[in-house]
Every structure is written in structure tokens, then in C-alpha cells.
Fold:
Amino acid sequence: MKHLLKLTFLALLLLPAGLMAQKKIVAPDEIVLNVGEKKKLDIYVQENGKKSKEDVRAFSRARRSVYVDSTQTIEAFKPGEFEVLVIGGGSVADYPEGNRKSIKVRVNYPPISEIKIEGIPNTIYAGTPVALKYKVIDKAGLERADVQVTFSSANSSVASVSGFGVINTFKEGKVNITAKAENIENTISLNVVKNPITRIELSADGDQGRTGDVFHFNAKALDAKGNVIADAPIQYSFYGVSDDVSQSASGLIKQDGRFVADEAGTYTITAAAGVASASKTLRIVPRDVTRKIEMVGQGSVNDKHTSDLWIWEGVDGRDYAVTGTWGADGKAYFWDVTNPANIFKIDSVQVDARTVNDVKISEDGTICVISREGASNRKNGLVIIDVKDPRNVEIISTFDENLTGGVHNVFIYKNHIYALSAGQKYYIINIEDPKKPYAVSKFELDTPGHAIHDVWVEDGIAYSSNWSDGIQLVDVGNGIAGGSPKNPVQFASYAYPNGANHAAFPYRSKTGKFYVIGGDEIFPYGLNTAKGGVNMAGGYLHIIDFTDLENPEEIARVEIPYAGSHNYWIEDDILYVAFYNAGVRVFDLSGELMGDLRKQGREIAWFIPNDGNGYTPNAPFTWGAQLHKGHIFFSDWNSGLWSAKLEPEKPKETKIQSK
Structure:
């Protein structure tokens, strides 16, 4: 019997390692739901052919469309095709087929319920076009952009209508216009009257400028007696000729008369109302803001990924930096950067985590807070550190309450820490006594499948980045909405269509405009986290005009081809942004903003940190940038901490006027 047991044991030892614990994820390949329907997922880990009690997690990649809660129940909110990822626990090595599986989720489109047509004028002047404003609504109450709408006119001699809902009027009379989608129709009656417009007066705030300068045109429609026709449907257009014959003279014009040119050249702006029109010509020259940028120094980290950074002046007057690490051993590094050409480590802390994603320093330079993700005990809270002496940093306390789902980002503002919890909300934690932190409130949206990535606090306003729910402005002490740290009050928001809002940074322009810049985070080719992995990102910066808080407008963008935005910094009308595989980019934000800033020649400089000794050699993947005392500091995922410097701004040309 002993020999039999020994042989059995030897046989087990000789088995391939993967056969010791044969695990696989059991989950359906596809689920079909209707909008509003819920279904309990039948997912589990199977070990050696039997159902295991091991934890299994499921999450949606489109949480506002389909959402999976903690009980593994999926709920459908929007129609379309989506993906739910199922991940098994334990070691990846135990799963010969991988420890994750994808479920295709198809949510059926509900039938159409109505076609709404809004803003119908009481009268239309003959000879002027009108674009119908319409929405297709289904029985789930959702606006549908995927439905084909057809239009028809009951009397084409009075007015015709295009397939895009643009009505062209020809003579006086009444006419019915019908919009149809599936089996739903909506018919409106229009009254076409005699056109009193005889001429257009057009004025502008200038006739020459640089690419990227915003011009304001004002058009007035007048009748034969010179009276202003206030309800005239004026339309703006432009025609341009570029100085560079190989390029078109592109630009952007808004129907309120704002215009910006991308290329140097001559542009003619026209305002028209039917047969009456007026034009003005602009002369545009290059913006000419480019400057050289030079690498100054590097603090190399080549044994693990580097995450975020923060630069500050210490209480001793010297300059310091702290950087986090990603997917490694829970370390944060402290650096002396007083001489940006000689960056060197001075201390480090190690905490129970795989990732220290975010690092922040208090306004007085005495307290550091770092985030934790991937802790062995799942208490993924935050760690508060005394940095009065950055060469001998000491952990003061930790805070884990309600933060077990992982803290991805944090912010310190006026003795309070704003800490993300489980990617859904943020808690506001009082640290007046950093040894005894305590939560005073939280902020969380109530939208289906809501999520959050980041929070930034400035002037008593918290700017949170909530993916599909967009940018949220919350009063936490500013007073604009009566909020405080104990009573956060949301007062404005903006969500852009791609739903990838990852970061937000406020910018009050010298023009009086109040912008918030929202950044995407998109990995269209996936993210290779392994040593040696090379990555490309996608997405760009959306510049939102929040001057009118009730009507924010997405007005401009910063986009780099074949690269994606991450974290950024704004100071003195200059934007410093990490664009992952495209390095650090520097942009001129002076003046009013509109259109594509890179096309307009607003890019001042760029620097790509290639490092042959990096964690992945020569694979730049910049994470964040910060300006400090005239130097640009930035972290790179594969190579650590860097510093660079812009050459001084070119002196403005002095014009000599003859007497």
C-alpha cells in the first residue's frame, strides 16, 4: 500500500503544472436583452470539471449602456452591441485557456414612438432656406440617431425638402412637410410669406490676424426702408485661398458669426439671407509661436512602470518630486529636482499594493497622499505621508474606509483629500489631523452604470471626470452653489459623445472666457502591460466653454494623429500635455479658442522621451506633465521622471510708424 501511495504521488509530480488545477471560466457566449430588462448571469469558475466556489467578477465596458452589479445581475439601458468581461480569481497560471472570457451582449432596439420637430417658425420668408430641427424618440424614451428619416413636401412649388430636412422656399403660400420613420409620421404646416429683405450689412472686429485668432462678424438684414428685420435667417459661410498651394484654406465658422482660420491666406466671409448677401475679406498670417525644447535631465526608472508625478517646493526651499509605480510592488519614489539637470532619488516608500497610481502634495508642501490598487488584503485605500523632510519620509496614517474597491486618483485641497472609491464616486476626507483622517461626505451620480476616473479641485470647485457622464462641476467651498466639503453641490456638467472623459482641468482665459478641458483615454489596440510591450493610444482634448454655466459649448480640440491624451497642466496661457506615445506637447492657449488648435499652428513645441534603457526600450509613453519654476517635468510609463525646458519666447516684432 505504501508503494502504491508513493507511485500515485510520483505520478502527480510528473503531471504538467497546468493539470494540477485545470480551471476555466464558464459563461455564455452571447446574451440578448431588451432595454430595461435585467438578467442574472450564470457565470462561475470550473475547476477540474466541477463548479468552484472561487470568486468570479464581471464588468461592462459600456456601463451606461449595460451594467453588471455586485450580484452579477446585468441590466440593459441602451440598445446596441456591447461586451461584458468575466474574470476568474486565483493565479492566471491555473487557467490553461486564460482567466477571462468575453460575453457579447446584444440589446434590442425598441420601436419608434415619435418624431419631434422643434423650433418651427411662424412664418418663413420666400427664397430663404430652413433646416428642420428634429429628434427620433423610441418607446424607451431614447433619442435615436440610427433611424432613417424621410421627408416630403405636399406642394413643391411653394417649398421643397431635402433628405436631410433642409427646406427651400420659392414663393408665398402654405405647405405641409411630413417627416417619416418606420411607421411613425409627423406633419407640420409652414406659412411662406413675401421676403422683405433687400440687403445685408456685415461688420467685423478686424480684417487681419493670425491663424487661430477668432473673429466676430455681425450681420443685419434690412428692408427697402432700412429697417432691421430681426427674425431674418442669416447664414454664414466662407471661402479661402491658402498661401501654401498644396493645402486648402480650412477654418471654422459658427452661425453666430464667429470665424477662425487654420491656414495663412485670404478668406472671404459671406452672410446671406436668401438672395441678399454681403461679404468681407480677411488677411491671415501664420501664428508663429514655435520654440525649441531641450531635454534637461532624467531620473531613470527601468525596472517597473512609472505612473503619475507631482513637483513641489519643500519647506527647506529645495525642489522635490514624487512619482508612483504601476503594476509592480507598491512603491513611490521621492526625488530631489532642485537642479533639473541632476535628478536623483532621495527616498521611497513601499505599501501593500501593486499600483500606486496617483500622488499628490498639500499646498504647504508637508503632506503627501498616494493611492493604492491591488492590495493583498483588498483594502485599497490611501496612504498619508509626512514629507517635511523628503529625504526621510514617514507614513503618518492610512485610510481604507469605503475605499476597498481601489483608489485610482486622489487630490489634496485645504486639509481635505478627495479620493475615488471603486471607480464610482469620491469621498471627501478631512485631514486637519493627518493622524486621524475621517470622511465628511461623498459625491456620486445617480445615472445608470455611472463611473468616475479623476477629480481635480481648484478655487473650491471639484472637477470630476465621469466617463460617459462627462465633466461634473461641484461646489465644495467656492460658494457658487452653496457647497462645502461637508455638502458638495453639483452645479454644471457637460458630456461629449464618445463617452471617454478621463481627465478635466479648468482654465480661465485672459479674454474672460472660462474653459474646462476634458481629456479622453482610449486604447483602440488594447494595452500591453508586460515588459517589452509597445503601446499606442487614442483620443484627444475637448475644450469646453463653460462661460455660460447653463449652456456649455464644446468649442475647440487638441488632437495629435495616432496618439492619445493623458494628463496635463496649464499655466500662463500655455498647455503642457502628455500624449502617451507622442510624448509631451506644448500649446499656445492665448486669446479666444475655437476649432482645431494644432491645425492653426498653436503647437509651440514637442518632446518625445526615447530611452534605450527603459523598462521597454525606446517606447515612450508619457503619463503626465507639470510646469515648475520654468522647467517642464513629466513622467513616462517606461522610463521614469524627466525634465525639459522651452527656449524663451520670441520677442514681438516692433512696428515703426512714420510721422
Notes: DSSP finds one helix and 56 strands in the chain. Helices lie at 2-14.
